[in-house]
Amino acid sequence: MHELVFDSIDRLAAHSGPLTVLDAGCGTGFLLRGLGRYGFACGVDCSPVALTYCRGRGLNRLARASVASLPFQDAVFDVIVSTDVLYHTGVTDDLGALREFHRVLKPGGLVILHVPAFEFLRRAHDRQMHSRHRYSRQELESKLSGSRFQVAKIT
């Protein structure tokens, strides 16, 4: 999955200089560390334990925050990556989080999301991973449109 994220950003980076990248829900920082190759990369997570792991990886551009209330000014990021976050029980308002992403994203910027698909695929693993929800393509497209995003690709 990380390679798909990097491939998407590579296409944008080929036509610009260094990028500002936000890992929204950075967890322990494994992906965030790789995002540093594009310029200024920072991460937010609501878990102090996760942020401790990030610091252990040498990552210091971090903030403890919810994706529904980001501590950044408007239009500061070229790219926002949020993998396996919006569906989580800790995110009670996924539409609000998407609106926050739109607020802090520069015009023409890129958002890369990864969420689990299809409620009928819900299993015990979802409970263990604290999954609040699984998405259909139509629902995700609707939420993105409702947050003023233009969907370039959804699979």
Structural notes for this entry:
With 155 residues, the chain is α/β, with parallel strands linked by helices. Helix content is 34%, strand content 21%. It contains 6 helices and 5 strands. It has helices at 2-13, 30-35, 48-56, 94-104, 124-128, 137-146, and strands spanning 19-24, 39-45, 62-64, 77-83, 105-114. It has a 5-stranded parallel beta sheet with strand order 3-2-1-4-5. Strand 4, helix 4 and strand 5 (105-114) form a beta-alpha-beta unit. The longest helix has 12 residues, at 2-13. The chain is globular. The relative contact order is 0.15. The mean pLDDT is 81.
List the helices and strands and how they pair.
Elements: H1 2-13, E1 19-24, H2 30-35, E2 39-45, H3 48-56, E3 62-64, E4 77-83, H4 94-104, E5 105-114, H5 124-128, H6 137-146
Termini separation comes to 13 Å
Mean pLDDT score, rounded? 81
Largest sheet: 5 strands, parallel
Order of helices and strands: HEHEHEEHEHH
**What oligomerization state is this entry in?**
single chain
> Which residues sit in consecutive blocks of at least 5 with pLDDT less than 50?
none
Radius of gyration: 15 Å
Considering the chains and any ligands shown, give keywords for the structure.
five-stranded parallel β-sheet; 155 residues; 21% strand; alpha/beta
Short summary of the structure?
Helices cover 34% and strands 21% of the residues.
